[in-house]
Write a structure and sequence with these properties.
The complex is a heterodimer of chains A (314) and B (413).
Chain A: H1 2-15, H2 20-59, E1 61-62, E2 70-71, H3 75-81, H4 84-116, H5 122-130, H6 137-147, H7 155-161, H8 175-204, H9 207-215, H10 220-231, H11 233-248, H12 252-258, H13 269-279, H14 283-308
Antiparallel strand pairs in A: 1-2
Chain B: H1 2-25, E1 26-32, H2 39-49, E2 53-59, H3 64-74, E3 80-84, H4 88-94, H5 101-106, H6 115-121, E4 122-123, E5 126-127, E6 130-142, H7 143-148, H8 160-171, E7 178-180, H9 187-200, E8 206-207, E9 212-213, H10 218-232, H11 250-253, E10 257-263, H12 265-273, E11 279-282, E12 284-286, E13 289-292, E14 295-302, H13 309-319, H14 322-331, H15 338-344, H16 352-360, H17 370-375, H18 380-390, H19 394-410
Parallel strand pairs in B: 1-2, 1-3, 7-10
Antiparallel strand pairs in B: 3-14, 4-5, 6-10, 6-11, 6-14, 8-9, 12-13
Classes of the chains: A mainly alpha (314), B alpha+beta (413).
InterPro entries (chain B): SBP
Organism (chain B): Dongia sedimenti
Protein name (chain B): Sugar ABC transporter substrate-binding protein
Chain lengths: 314, 413
């Protein structure tokens, strides 16, 4: 986007001969602007572009954790096409992302609507719903790993004591119970964050518009559908992109709670990259997998931005 | 200006001198956290009696490999490392380790050092690693529960049928008590305790010098059925299905499990921390008798490119002396030198003798990709065990694991 603007202006510069003095000032202005963004640019270069380039360079090598790297061109990428576990992990990650995103929004949206209205204890509710967000994903996972434990945890023994089950059920022994336990945990952990984002969107809608609609006799559902939702398009896009990108990169909860089990059925894409890089010591292959995941993520984000772009163009 | 240069040069020289002087006096050594019970004591005893000094650093077991690999690449690796013996081939192959062949051959008791350790320490005919500490897998049974179930508390089972029958009787006691325990979602634990069942029945895991996987065998299927039966009959606690090794030892220590295959490390731990658990130790048997054991533990390795062989020899001679071996055994490691082993454990718990004997016949699959195949939580071994013990498609899972292992073995170069 930046470069697009630049070239436009440069074109103006070369065309606009008669306006020489203005051009000089403009140029100086541009230089100052560049100076202002320089620190940010340097940071991006140092901590994103260069490492990305290095990761790509690594992905072209057989790069063991021990020993010397050897250039193999696109060998890693060719191997990756036949890597059944990677594609299974990719499928699982997409499935998880779809389910968890729907789950998060179906909880976060009502929560946002609920805490938006000022009533007594609003602040308490907001804080309470947001509280799990400040727990790190790692510690939250550890907490839930304990809650889900069959012998020393909470859910199974409690269900047995209360007489809901004849005997204790190991929730982490089957795919469905493991998967849904983790979904619930993630919703508990992240719904508060999405609630806050959606809340800022809700509060950005001027009350006059809502009032005008009410006077015109619009029902609450109509107001939600025709006013609230369209005006929150951008907020929803932000929350959605953050949630989808975060879910596509899920790792901690599956690593800590389920250990990828039962039988590798909850190994996410990042988990597989981690285990290839540091379990099997194939850093080059891990880098190649990361590149593919990056491309997929960028693609998904672009599609989302396209879909959620305002119809008017901006 | 000139003065400054001279001063700078002088300072550099001084630093270089002092660091080389330090290197000669104080050597660094890493050891993993599971060896915390015996390594500090051993090093302390060595430092007290020798001019060469070793500074020991304990590294969390799960981080050891990455840490040593990255440190070696960056030139900041310690001089010596006590490394899980299964990783020796991977490090030897990468050129990180000093060749110890001549040193090893110069030891008069070389023939008596643990064969399993030397086996994994040998790469392409040269020896890169020597035994440091040892652990062997054995079968433990709970004497109190045996008595309650009407079994002879002083006689351990000698084949699979006896194990299953005993587990059934103990299980029948009811309540929280179960017959048999193993960590069902732990690749490393089951390499340690499940492979001996196959070896003792005449089967194997890796053949052709570790180049070929041979797991789709009748012995493997028999052993799988043996475990499956016990799981199906409810002899195994529900928690075993997802135990990734955290409770490998804890299961038996609860005093509510009849039998469990564990390592010799459990003996010292039970005696010290769970004195109420009255247990017996026996060999892991084959289907119709016989016995086998997985030899685990650590190998001693020297980081390549440093002139430390003299000091290494001095240290190893101390480790393999009767004093060193006794210190190791007291701390919970099995002796690594066969001809003084009996002497080293003579003052210890009677049950150590079984473990020491198990160690002598202990075996270890050797491969630079050991971690990838057996220990990795996403590897084919662990995945297969989960499917065959608790799933439905035994035949397909074994065949799939066999293919996956072979493909990893083939792609290692």
């Amino acid at each position: 986007m930046n470069s697009g603007v630049m070239t436009d202006q440069q074109q103006q510069l070369t065309d606009g001969r008669p306006r020489r003095r203005r051009t000089a000032r403009q140029r100086r202005k541009q230089l100052v602007g560049l100076l202002f963004v320089a620190p940010a640019l340097a940071l991006v270069l140092l901590f994103f572009v260069i490492p990305l380039g290095m990761a790509f360079w690594m992905s072209l090598h057989n790069w063991p954790l021990l020993g010397k790297p050897r250039f193999i061109g696109l060998g890693n990428y060719a191997r990756l096409l036949d890597d059944a576990q990677f594609w299974a992990s990719m499928r699982f990650t997409v499935y998880y992302t779809l389910i968890v995103t729907v789950a998060i929004f179906s909880i976060a949206f009502p929560l946002a609507l609920f805490v938006e209205k000022t009533r007594s204890l609003t602040k308490l509710y907001r804080t309470a719903f947001f509280l799990p967000v400040v727990v790190g994903f790692g510690s939250a996972s550890l907490l839930w790993a304990w809650l889900l434990d069959v012998d020393s945890g909470l859910f199974s023994p409690a269900a047995e004591r209360l007489g809901l089950m004849d005997q204790r059920v190991n929730l982490l022994a089957g795919f469905d119970t493991t998967f849904w336990s983790i979904i619930i945990m993630v919703v508990w952990k992240t719904a508060g964050f999405n609630m806050i984002i959606l809340l800022t969107g809700l509060q950005g809608i001027s009350t006059e518009v809502q009032e005008a609609a009410r006077i015109d006799g619009a029902s609450p559902w109509q107001r939600f559908r025709r006013i609230t939702l369209p005006l929150m398009r951008r907020t929803i896009a932000l929350a959605l992109i953050l949630s989808v990108a975060g879910s596509m990169l899920a790792f901690d909860q599956f690593y800590i709670i389920a250990d990828g089990g039962p039988q590798n059925s909850t190994v996410t894409a990042v988990y597989w990259i981690f285990s290839q890089s540091f379990g099997s010591f194939r850093l080059g292959y891990g880098a190649a997998l990361s590149m593919v995941l990056l491309v997929i993520l960028v693609f998904i984000s672009v599609v989302q931005l396209r879909l959620l772009r305002n119809p008017e163009g901006m | 200006m000139r003065l400054l240069k001279i001063a700078a040069l002088g300072a550099t020289a001084l630093v270089a001198l002092s660091s080389s002087a330090f290197a000669q006096e104080k050597l660094t050594m890493w050891s993993r956290s599971t060896s915390e019970a015996f390594m500090p004591g051993l090093i302390k005893a060595f430092n007290e009696t020798h001019k060469t000094q070793i500074e020991l650093q304990i590294i969390p077991s799960s981080e050891m490999v990455q840490k040593y690999a990255t440190a070696a690449a960056g030139g900041s690796a310690p001089d010596f490392v006590s490394l899980d013996l299964v990783y020796a081939p991977a490090f030897a192959k990468s050129g990180t380790l000093e060749d110890l062949t001549d040193l090893a051959k110069s030891l008069p008791y070389f023939e008596h050092l643990s064969k399993a350790h030397i086996g994994t320490g040998t790469y392409e005919g040269r020896i890169y690693a020597l035994p440091m500490s040892a652990d062997a897998s054995v079968l433990l049974w709970n004497k109190k529960l045996f008595k309650q179930a009407g079994l002879d508390p002083d006689k351990g089972p000698t084949n699979w049928a006896e194990i299953e029958a005993a587990a059934g009787k103990v299980n029948a006691l009811g309540g929280d008590i179960r017959g048999f325990y193993f960590a069902g979602a732990c690749g490393g634990c089951n390499a340690f305790t499940f492979m001996p069942l196959i070896w003792a029945s005449g089967g194997d895991i890796l053949v052709d010098d570790g180049k070929r996987a041979a797991i789709d065998t009748p012995q493997m299927h028999d052993a799988i059925n043996f475990y499956r039966d016990m799981v199906a009959k409810g002899y195994v606690p529900e928690s075993a299905k997802t135990d990734s090794g955290k409770n490998f030892f804890g299961g038996f220590a609860t005093d509510k499990v009849g039998l469990s295959p564990i390592g010799a490390f459990a003996i010292g731990n039970l005696v010290k921390n769970y004195p109420d658990v009255d247990f017996g130790v026996t060999f892991i048997p084959g289907k119709d008798g016989g016995k086998a054991s997985f030899a685990g533990g650590d190998n001693f390795v020297v980081t390549a490119g440093r002139d430390n062989l003299e000091a290494a020899k001095e240290f190893l001679e101390f480790v393999y002396s009767l004093e060193g071996q006794t210190l190791l055994a007291k701390g919970g490691s099995l002796p690594t030198r066969g001809d003084v082993a009996a002497e080293a454990v003579k003052d210890l718990d009677e049950r150590y003798k079984i473990a020491t004997e198990a160690m002598k016949m202990g075996r270890t699959p050797t491969s630079p990709v050991y971690n990838d195949i057996f220990n990795s939580s996403t590897g084919p071994w662990k995945q297969m065990l989960g499917q065959v013990f608790f799933g439905d498609d035994v035949k397909g899972s074994v065949a799939k694991a066999q293919a996956a292992m072979q493909s990893i073995l083939d792609s290692q170069d």
